[in-house]
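Quarterly update, task 2.4: nicotinamide-adenine-dinucleotide-bound model.
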Amino acid sequence: MVKVTVCGAAGGIGQPLSLLLKLNPQVSHLSLFDIVNAHGVAADLSHICTPAVVTGHQPANKEDSSAITEALAGTDVVIIPAGVPRKPGMTRADLFNINASIVRDLVANVGKTAPNAAILIISNPVNATVAIAAEVLKKLGVFNPRKLFGVTTLDSVRAETFLGELTGQSPSAIRGHLSVIGGHSGDTIVPLINVDSTISSAVSQWSPSQYQAYVKRVQFGGDEVVKAKNGAGSATLSMAYAGYRFAETVLNSLSDPSKPVADSTPVPDSSYVYLPGLPGGEEFSKKYVNGVTFFSVPVLLQNGEISSFINPFEKYKITSEEANLTEVALDGLQKSIDQGTTFVQGSRL
Ligand code: NAD
Ligand code: LMR
């Protein structure tokens, strides 16, 4: 019996993500919250012949807090794709002014109503919104760093797809044989493709410019979609797939709490996490990532929370190019983290 709540369920990501969740037999209750059209999406999905009961929750007006409380009551997993997407010419950081308060207020409600839930943050800029979520939960005295996940899976999905295109391999054979670490925007995204021989032998013939073009495409894959949609938003369908892929790992870990799960691949998907709150995370942060507090690393889950993470700098064969990419990523990350943290410190919850 697992209750999953999607906040922002009527949006471009929220709808297909909710559809995928409705198909998962582990979900017994799918709770859909949005400020618009939540009842319509819930009615539509509720006709699908799978076990999950679907409920829709939408506030009657700006002062109505009962809808979010009902949506979250007793939930095990909360997924947040609420907020505005980019338009061409914008960076993810440009979304901060609007999305920061949306994420702050939703997470405050999670902290008050469902403090034990696993929280998956999709809303951008992820590099800052996850720090916002952590700070809100800290302020409320309910922060469990093992249960707060910044969803960076789309970067891995892109890294697998683009590498498959270039090497002629099936992307599904590549899954679990590369890793993407760092953050979720531009050059904070660091693909690692020398994880094992499955890929490193296939890319060993690349010229430096081929490698650089590949890295750039992974780092700026989001821009490719924003440009192609030409003002109609950013990635939604690929993000729904990616968000579901990570949510499925969380759900699998809940279905058999006795054993740790990755995602049945040698290299588990990464998530953007609060390092000092994880076993060995503080030392990792100081020794490998210049003390940044949030960083995306491969995670292993047990019973809906992180049991451990993989230190990519020890476990995988990091090349000098990948070490350089990491240095660049670290420069951009702490600024975004501080922006998120400071925003909440000046806020009333
Ligand atoms: P969208 O505009 O299509 O949908 C957003 C939904 O959020 C809308 O239905 C809106 O009504 C709802 N919403 C707004 N404020 C809300 C609130 N206070 N409570 C509940 N719902 C609220 O946008 P989208 O394309 O679905 O993108 C959503 C977010 O996800 C954006 O910030 C986007 O940048 C981000 N995103 C992240 C990734 C990632 O890899 N993490 C990938 C793609 C998009
Ligand atoms: C993505 O990577 O596609 C998302 O973060 C959306 C965006 O703004 O690019």
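Highlight for this quarter: The chain has a mean pLDDT of 95.
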